[in-house]
Amino acid sequence: MVELEKCLYRCVNCGWEKTLNTGFYAHCPKCKHILVISYEELETKNLKSTLPGIWRYSSFLPEFRVKPSLGEGGTPVRRGKKLEKKLGLAKLFLKDETKNPTGAFTDRGAALITAFSLHNSFQSITSITGGNIAASLATYCAAFGVEFTAIFRAPVDLEKLYMITACGGYVTSDPKNSRGFIVKPSNPFLVEGYKTISFEIHEYSKRLPDVIIAPVGHGSLTYALWKGFEELGEVGLITRKPFLVGVEVGKTRTAEDGATEEKKCSFISSELSVPQPAWRNALKEIVSKGEACLINVSDEEVVEGLRLLAAFEGLLVETASATAVSGLIKALNNGIIRKNQSIMLVVTGSGLKNPRTFIRILEKRFIDTCENELNRPSRISIEILNMLSEGSLHGYKIWKKLYTKGYNITLQAVYYHLKRLEEIGLIRRIVTRPRKTYVITRDGLEFLKNIL
Ligand SMILES: [Zn+2]
User: Fold this and answer.
1) How many CA atoms lie less than 13 Å away from 279 in the CB half-sphere?
2) Residues 6+ apart with CB under 8 A from 103
3) How many CB atoms lie within 10 A of CB 142?
4) pLDDT tens-digit readout, 120-159
5) Which CATH class is domain 73-101+194-355?
6) Residue 349 backbone phi and psi in degrees, to 5
7) Any residues with CB less than 8 A from the CB of 442 and at least 6 apart, and which?
8) DSSP-derived pairing of the beta strands 261-263 and 251-253
9) Which pLDDT score is estimated for 263?
10) Distance between CA atoms of 409 and 3, rounded to whole angstroms?
11) Side by side, which strands form the sheet with 211-215?
């Protein structure tokens, strides 16, 4: 364990430093940039201690008086054989972070932040960031007797709010209600917790994967993975780092140099809709060294990733985790990575935590299906158009003709199809007594000509 006098806050931009026993700095006082924790000297002895949770890797963590753990970390790595075969890959591994106490990797960061708070005798923690971090912090605060407040901004994830309030946390949208130790996505202790994923990958893999793919919201996870491997390299435990692929959702670059960037909102994941990722500049640094790359995927690609993980590996994950699969497919297609490399996906969180996301996906699917139905007539509708191209007919006659052709549908359903065809202008209704007659329009004839 590293004594606090030998742990430093270090600005990744200007190099400003201060030891950890001097309190907390939210950002660099000189240039306002984010801070990371660096260690004057790392030792390999006692690398794998018998302490619970992430504290197993205490020799790479600051020495806090209390080491709170709810059994976070120690998550399994498993081979994704079916998905591997489906995508034609040599080796695919899944680091299954859904097995953490609250079903997400953020528990690792929550353990570190709770330790820092208890060490400094803070009675209260406020999370400025919603989502999984807030849910993890609420859980740890409840278990270790710290008061917790979450400041939420729209769109609100109701499932996370439920977890927080169930754990006795206070939820508000007013930042004036912040109390005690304030946790933002840029908090360096989150990274210190998350980096233990790299230690576990190193400890439990016979050979480090060539590529690791992880989702990017604020970017702290991807940065932490890099930092973990960097520290293992510093003490001589590894000689090469895996290449990291960070996957964002719905981001558009508006300038080649990256100076002006805009991040679109994601329809299906509020967790990944981050307008200004806190760790972006730090990530750019490792991208410029050629040790990582960032790619972005669409909502549709995320939904496909979700389906693949569930259908081929039995893993129901949150949308953020599904971006890793979407990113994998995209990185292969773009030639960023190769099929013969060994690839690991960090599956960050369980889908059981946010069923509303699945409902949103289903709603979108339903809307898409309806839109398709409107824009593209069904087989029965085409059959009706064919009949009308030979002459006008009334509804009952159309139904009889369809019946003799083997279509077992009700008269009511025939009128439904006629109504749809009329709405999109392919047929017209003429009111003649005693029945209404339908005729095909010029657009209807044109449509038939194009599909034949
Ligand atoms: Zn600075």
Assistant:
1) 27
2) 349, 350, 352, 353
3) 18
4) 999 999 999 778 999 999 999 999 999 999 998 766 677 7
5) alpha beta
6) -160, 160
7) none
8) antiparallel
9) 47
10) 78
11) 77-79, 91-96, 342-347, 211-215, 243-249, 292-297
Q: Look up residue 353 and give its two tokens.
A: 């935590």
Domain 376-451, what architecture?
Orthogonal Bundle (1.10)
DSSP 70-98: SS-----EEE-HHHHHHHT-SEEEEEEGG
- Contact partners, residue 238, CB within 8 Å, separation at least 6: 202, 208, 229, 232
Tell how far the Cα of 246 is from the centroid of ligand 1, in angstroms: 25
Output the average pLDDT for the chain.
88
**How far does the centroid of ligand 1 lie from the alpha carbon of residue 401, in Å?**
79
CA of 14 to the centre of ligand 1 (A): 4
Domain ranges of the chain: 1-41, 73-101+194-355, 376-451
Ligand 1 ion: nearby residues, β-carbon < 5 Å: 11, 13-14, 16, 28, 30-31, 33
- The Å distance, Cα 17 to ligand 1 centre, comes to 9
Cβ-in-10-Å burial (0-12, 13-18, 19+) of 279 comes to: buried
Residues linked to residue 182 through DSSP beta bridges, in sequence order: 126
pLDDT band at 205 (very low <50, low <70, confident <90, very high): confident
CB 225 within 8 A of CB 198: yes
CA–centroid distance, 440 to ligand 1, in Å, is 72
The tokens for 26 are 């939210």
Residue 168 structure tokens: 């006795």
Q: 404-441, pLDDT tens digit by residue? A: 988 888 888 888 889 888 888 889 998 877 788 999 99
